[in-house]
Write a structure and sequence with these properties.
Strand order of the largest sheet: 7-14-10-11-12-9-8-13
Oligomer: single chain
Order of helices and strands: HHEHEEHHEEEEEEHEEEEEHHH
Strand content: 15-25%
Number of strands: 14
Length: 318
């Protein structure tokens, strides 16, 4: 069969694998949709292919400082770190200790050992971690908020950027944002009306403007303003915005197997209430067998995921 790229094709594939149309699958359409959503949620939570690592850049606003937290879009599953706010990782000048070390100790890479330089740099990083440390944070994806345990009046100012290391869930379907956007020709700045970009868009997302132009988002500058990688060709007023989905998700091997097993379990659960009832021709329905087979398949796949396919433990510990 052709490559699966939509939810409708995925649903048809699962039913065919279970025997449809040769066998009647006694599962309601809404139940099938629910099991597919359940499989997709599990796949995102535990399978390494269900998320992607990225660095989300957010520009601090006065509103952020007043409420002392930052919006995290629904797509963000886990937050694993926040980049330091100090200047220890900034570009160095000739008076910086690191510059002098490189100038005097590594003037010739072919004849000078870099061991002492590396040990010194590790010592400097340890001192920086000891005295400056990294920003402490708290995050729960059901709140869509990243709380930074910092001095908001001293450590950050409006216009500063905060870089958050996180994992975002892959969205297989194209979704339409709430509200509309305005932008001029040759401009890479987009202004939203009735929508909050920082609640829906993650940097590097691909969006379609007005149903015609596709552009990649570089930064979300504020709740209503974002920057595109390349400018638009036309003027847009009150235009719709769609986020492009990763359609290849629907063709994932584990997701297909797991969704089929969940639908099979639902099928067996539906038939169990007819146990012992004899159908015309002497056939007796045995939903318990179907249910038990599905349970075994699900347990086996989940065990494999927990052991081999899950995300790094740092995500679960924060």
């Amino acid at each position: 069969m052709a490559k699966i790229s939509t939810k409708a094709q995925f649903k048809t594939y699962c039913l065919r694998k279970l025997g449809f149309p040769v066998i009647e699958i006694n599962v309601d359409d809404d139940q099938v949709e629910d099991r597919i959503d359940e499989a997709l949620s599990f796949w995102r939570d535990y399978h390494y292919d269900g998320t992607e690592k990225l660095f989300m850049k957010h520009m601090i606003t006065a509103e952020d400082i007043n409420r002392q937290w930052i919006y995290a879009p629904d797509a963000v599953q886990f937050v694993t770190g926040v980049m330091p706010f100090d200047l220890s990782n900034a570009s160095i000048n000739m008076f910086d200790l690191r510059y002098q070390l490189r100038l005097h100790d590594l003037y010739d890479f072919t004849s000078v050992s870099y061991v002492s330089y590396e040990i010194t740099m590790q010592h400097l990083r340890t001192l920086n971690l000891l005295f400056s440390g990294t920003p402490q944070f708290r995050f729960n994806r059901h709140q869509n908020k990243v709380f930074l345990d910092i001095d908001w009046t001293r450590d950050v100012q409006p216009g500063n950027y905060v870089i958050i290391e996180c994992y975002r869930a892959l969205e297989p379907d194209t979704i339409t944002l709430t509200g509309t956007i305005d932008c001029g020709p040759g401009s890479n700045t987009v202004t939203g009306t009735g929508t909050a970009f920082d609640q829906e868009i993650v940097p590097f997302d691909f969006i379609t403007i007005g149903g015609s132009e596709q552009r990649q988002v570089v930064t979300v500058n504020s709740p209503t303003v974002l920057t595109l990688k390349s400018p638009t060709n036309s003027t847009y007023t009150a235009a719709s915005v769609k986020i492009e989905g990763v359609t290849d998700v629907w063709n994932d091997r584990f997701l297909k197997k797991y969704a089929c097993a969940l639908i099979k379990r639902q099928w067996g659960s539906n038939l169990k209430k007819f146990a012992g009832i004899q159908m015309p021709g002497g056939v007796t329905l045995n939903g318990q067998v179907i249910y038990d087979e599905a349970i075994q398949e699900i347990e086996k796949m989940e065990e494999e995921i927990y052991m081999m396919g899950s995300l790094p433990s740092e995500i679960l510990t924060g």
